[in-house]
Amino acid sequence: MPVAGGILLIVGVLVVFGPHLENGFVYDDHPQIEQHPWVKSRGDWQAPFKNEVWAHARREVGAGLVYYRPLFIVANRIAYALGEGSPRAFHVLSLLLHIASTGMAVVLLMLIGIDRRLACAAAALFALHPLAGEVVYWAGCLGDQLALLGMMGTLACILLARRFNGGRRVTMLVLSVLSALFAVLSKETAVVLAPLATVEAVLATRSERRRRLVDVLPVWAVTVVYLGLRVSVLPRSGLGHASADLLWGLGRAGSALLWDARHLAVPFPLSPFHSFPLTGQPLGVQVAGLATLAVLAAAGLWLLYRRSSWAFWMAWIVLPLLPRLSQLFFAHSTGLLISERYLYMALVPWCAVIVLVAGEGLTRAFPRRSRRVLGTSALVLACLGAAVVTRGYGYVFRDDATLFGHAARVSPDHPVVLNSLAVSRMDAGEYREAMDLLRRSIAVEPRRSQ
């Protein structure tokens, strides 16, 4: 990235996200940060590696999903110590990680083979995109940022290893292993890293394929070790028993992916909570979900055989969206199946695809002299529009009252929103309104009655 362009982009990110560094903690930041004994430095540094994230509050959160994210807790602990418990330290760290991910995106996209200008354009869209707002503004999303940074670092090291021989090649592969370990210990979603790297290797020419697959083997080893460690630490998944209705689960998974696709294309309305059918889905929704899976499978096969270079981009967009869908095949339900933060890891390839498609369109439709002016103008307008929206979105995360007030307007029937509003009503002594909200919450998600 040219120095002037890099400085300008960093300034833009600071202008957009900087005004919200004084935001407070919201929603699960309270039990996950303020009330977490290991985050508050009570206990040794090994505790996060021996326990799940919610081990300290399992009675309060119930028998829901369990998470193994030790580096996420360690990052929270460091931020808590540096800021003496102030939310500002978490928001500063989050902003720095987002800037680091933007820089890493430029490096990785160039290593993949994208022109430097296009790589910078894609990184600029990622840096200012409204869908990045929730992750950057919400302190509890540090794990998403750490995992994305580790994933991109791993891919970059693997690509760099191909350019060297001997000791430098080995060094790059060792760094890819460490970066992969960093990613999976930050958030479970990073287990898609090994399959993604494998897709990239398989799409190479036959003469290169074997060597590239060998380079990916250490990442698979890290994945296996991580899964073994997770199983040894966590006695259960928290998912409950598997549902016998496979089509029901596939339909729900397809519906979630359909929401993901729509929200990537049109990221509005912006909200930390979006409603999603938890129990019975209408037949039309079920059919649309199954159709989505069929279209994705067909598109993947078509790209694999006709435009293999684009198959990698599709894999990078779709694979990070899949892990959380596993819960849809179990009887256990949760109100957080679709959310903007799940799109964060798919945002870099999505922005890259937008820029590549736009660049190809300009190449075909306009002469060489006009392309640069039109492309630059379109990028500036897109970044300015995204910056205005993303900056305004930051005010939603100021405090709990603002967060859930906004969420209630977007998703008035979301169980988490209803439950949180009920708690606020009880705190205000409005018990009749609180009971009504709790009944509505339990009707949507019965497990909240337990």
| Global mean pLDDT | 90
Helix vs. strand class: mainly alpha
Major sheet: none
The succession of helices and strands, N to C, reads HHHHHHHHHHHHHHHHHHHH
What would the principal axes of the Cα set say about the shape?
Answer: globular
Distance between the termini: 54 Å
The beta-strand count equals 0
Detail the poorly predicted runs.
none
Proportion in helices: 55-70%
Please state roughly what percent of the residues sit in beta strands, choosing from under 5%, 5-15%, 15-25%, 25-35%, 35-45% or over 45%.
under 5%
Number of helices: 20
Rg result = 22 Å
Task: Report on the architecture of this protein.
With 450 residues, the protein is mostly helical. 68% of the residues lie in helices and 0% in strands. It has helices at 3-17, 29-34, 47-50, 58-61, 70-83, 87-112, 116-128, 133-137, 142-161, 167-184, 193-202, 206-233, 246-265, 283-306, 308-318, 344-365, 368-393, 400-410, 415-427, 431-444. Helix 1 (3-17) packs parallel to helix 7 (116-128). It is globular and about 65 Å long. The N and C termini lie far apart (54 Å). The relative contact order is 0.11.
SSE layout and pairing:
Blueprint: H1 3-17, H2 29-34, H3 47-50, H4 58-61, H5 70-83, H6 87-112, H7 116-128, H8 133-137, H9 142-161, H10 167-184, H11 193-202, H12 206-233, H13 246-265, H14 283-306, H15 308-318, H16 344-365, H17 368-393, H18 400-410, H19 415-427, H20 431-444
Helix pairs in contact: 1-7, 1-17, 5-6, 6-7, 6-9, 7-16, 7-17, 9-10, 10-12, 11-12, 13-14, 14-15, 15-16, 16-17, 18-19, 19-20
